[in-house]
């Protein structure tokens, strides 16, 4: 059986509290030998680190999600630095920019929108700085904000790479991400009936230049669509990915795991 990794999971979410040991075991049985649990604020990042200490297959990424930006402390950097030196912390994030639901769409003013955008950019900048300092890369959450995200990362090219996670943009956007030395990853949306645009983007993405992920508990692939997602379901994503790329499961395994080790240098081999 081919080995795959879930490079983006939210194991600290309460959805998983009842059955974490069996969830990690089910993943292993399905061939999913590495799970990276992603922080969305400092508490969630600390929980991701604790899970990485508890389960050998689990690693952590520490950071603050852009949609939580208004709750962030003024300066995150000292806290993130001290978390990032942990041997099982493999990256910073998830961070980036998300303009999908702005305050003005929920009764706020244009000034509220501007404050929200500025706060997102500020904590994104802090996370890019810490990543550069500690020699790790960033897991990027980007929604309806591609231009600003690429612009803000530009000064870090050559020092910090981004994993544009849950990639849902077109092949042209993918090429711009790759031109900056960054990389994309694909979720279970790849398996959706209405996911042809994602399959087209993956078809244009060279093997070795993308990773697989679930973003669980969200985005369960077919045939689990609408249910709680979990890392074992990378298996279902990998089946469709191998079809899209016209390669064998072993070739896909080798290419996606190699991409993960290049991107997350502290991730150890199973
Ligand atoms: Zn996420």
What key phrases describe this protein's structure?
270 residues; alpha/beta; 8-stranded parallel sheet; 9 helices; 40% helix; binds zinc ion
Q: What count of helical segments does DSSP give?
A: 9
Rg, rounded, reads 17 Å
Approximate strand percentage: 15-25%
Structural class by helix and strand composition: alpha/beta
DSSP helix fraction: 40-55%
| Inertia-based shape | globular
Ends: how far apart? 14 Å
Report strand order across the widest sheet.
Answer: 1-2-3-4-5-6-7-8
Main sheet properties: 8 strands, parallel
Output mean pLDDT.
97
**SSE order, one letter for each helix or strand:** EHEHEHEHEHEHEHEHH
Q: pLDDT under 50 segments (min length 5)?
A: none
Bound molecules: zinc ion
What's the number of extended β-strand segments? 8
């Amino acid at each position: 059986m081919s080995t795959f990794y879930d490079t983006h999971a939210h194991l600290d979410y309460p959805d998983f509290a009842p059955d974490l040991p069996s969830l990690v075991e089910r993943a292993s049985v399905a061939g999913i030998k590495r799970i990276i649990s992603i922080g969305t604020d400092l508490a969630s990042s600390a929980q991701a680190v604790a899970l990485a200490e508890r389960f050998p297959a689990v690693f952590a990424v520490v950071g603050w999600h852009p949609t939580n930006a208004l709750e962030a402390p003024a300066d995150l950097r000292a806290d993130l630095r001290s978390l990032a030196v942990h041997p099982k912390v493999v990256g910073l994030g998830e961070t980036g920019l998300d303009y999908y639901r702005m305050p003005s769409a929920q009764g706020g003013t244009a000034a509220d929108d501007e404050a929200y955008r500025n706060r997102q950019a500020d904590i994104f900048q802090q996370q890019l700085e810490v990543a550069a300092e500690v020699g790790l890369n960033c897991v990027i959450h980007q929604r309806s904000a591609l231009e600003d995200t690429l612009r803000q990362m530009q000064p870090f090219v050559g020092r910090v790479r981004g994993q544009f996670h849950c990639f849902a943009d077109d092949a042209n956007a993918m090429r711009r991400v790759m031109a900056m030395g960054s990389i994309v990853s694909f979720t279970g949306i790849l398996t959706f009936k209405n996911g042809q645009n994602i399959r087209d983007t993956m078809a244009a993405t060279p093997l070795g230049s993308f990773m697989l992920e679930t973003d669980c508990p969200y985005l369960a692939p077919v045939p689990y669509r609408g249910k709680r997602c979990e890392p074992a379901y990378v298996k279902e994503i990998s089946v469709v990915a191998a079809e899209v790329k016209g390669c064998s499961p072993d070739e896909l395994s080798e290419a996606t795991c190699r991409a993960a080790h290049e991107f997350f240098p502290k991730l150890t081999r199973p």
